[in-house]
């Protein structure tokens, strides 16, 4: 027998089992499309240009979807191969050797995988463009976000799913290589044995979930959140699968032991049915739970960023007009002269444009990177270990009093300090051979001190900045991380037109391209781009929400089909032994409610514990209002629950049609 015979037989098998293969091919196509669309975002121009953190998060998301794809395809394949055990066993009875059966399965896998991959890539390309066009139309952002992909993305998708289908083929062959053909003929009728609850798996599920939750709850700062986010997600995913597989069995067995609950006709049917099929149900429910968590996080965070656009704009630009003057450590006197003369020139320019200053703040600072060792700040001259470094900002008391409106006095050797991530009240701090006795103050400093571990130190005189920098320069003569800079910010009263004229004039004079060793930033000029940026995040969040919701629909639909085929013969037997249809439907309705609520409840718990790490990530985008995120989170949970309820009601009709 040649390969043509086996390939023809494989095609005939697929056609004759189209009732099983059509849902399977549809599922595989959509999961491939999901991965392809997710991976395409890594090469998207908006993602690449806006933030390196955004690209990192999407890389993590792509890896998670890849892992999810492996689990999902193996899950759907297990249902397919279970339904075909009798057919494959018949081949052995008719005289085909196991290697011949393996060849048939090989060609079936080749045909279905090629069709799925080709359809998935084509669907991803078409739907990606359609999704982007639709969302651009609905959101009406100032700048359209275009869909893009690359050959690398396509090759990565082909490679991943070729590997997954290869693993699936080996699994299928193993199911028949070590099985007796007679047993295979009965395999479908034998049913599943009652699953044994594993205390080890249950404890492991709690360990993984607790580990993932603890990372989120104890994360120190936003930059650490990015690096630990992926680990936390993986731990929660593993813990979720183990929890559904083991924890659900413990609960059902506990209900079974309760005679008052179990020995009721409806409860008897629903509990027994779920218990005997919980191993397969658990995978599907865990998949839905994970996708639900992804939808809630993706949509709620991006909605929060968009709603809080004005707040984040003000956090990024504390004043309408902001200027940074960059200086050198050897030229402190020149820097001081420039600092005051520059402000005089600015105020004259503001007045010449017919505007009046209503509020202003200016200060000089020495910025250093290093780490704390007991009561000493050790300067990292070459920033060799940036992940371990903290930021130290040294300010003169004169500027601190000016910007806070206070009149604090300090003696030589005294300093004020603020530490962003610890309540450790230090009594002294040594830096650059100078030791200061410390008094703790609240955070009244500009800048993103919450983004990473930071320390602010207020010294008695501006000359201390030069003394500290000189000492450190002697230790690290090649360091490029020693500069004394000045920051000036102010608001004005007047018309928007006059403010815009002033902003454009100052941008031409003191922008990056002006060659003045300065940086001018206007909140007014940045507003449109800022809203476009945050609108882009909302765009991606809605896109991912639709993508993950599509995956939820897919799994729910496939789950209902597989359960329908499993339950059809059982319910027919129940009717033959005298149970009426109303009682059977009541028991299945209770089972559906159970299956509906469980993923939503667990997903809500996951996202609740994810709040601390998500909040840290939102700080990177300038979101500091917790109420905004909380309201977005609650709204998205209810919206997704309502959508999922509709999905479940519609797919339940498929289940009932199969059972009846």
From TrEMBL:
InterPro entries: ABC-4_Integral_Memb_Prot, ABC3_permease_C, ABC_permease_BceB-typ. Keywords: Cell membrane, Membrane, Transmembrane, Transmembrane helix, Transport. The chain crosses the membrane at residues 21-42, 54-76, 104-132, 152-178, 199-219, 225-252, 284-307, 537-558, 592-614, 626-647. Belongs to the ABC-4 integral membrane protein family. It is found in: Cell membrane. It is a multi-pass membrane protein. This is ABC transporter. Residues 63-173 form the ABC3 transporter permease C-terminal domain. The keyword Protein transport does not apply.
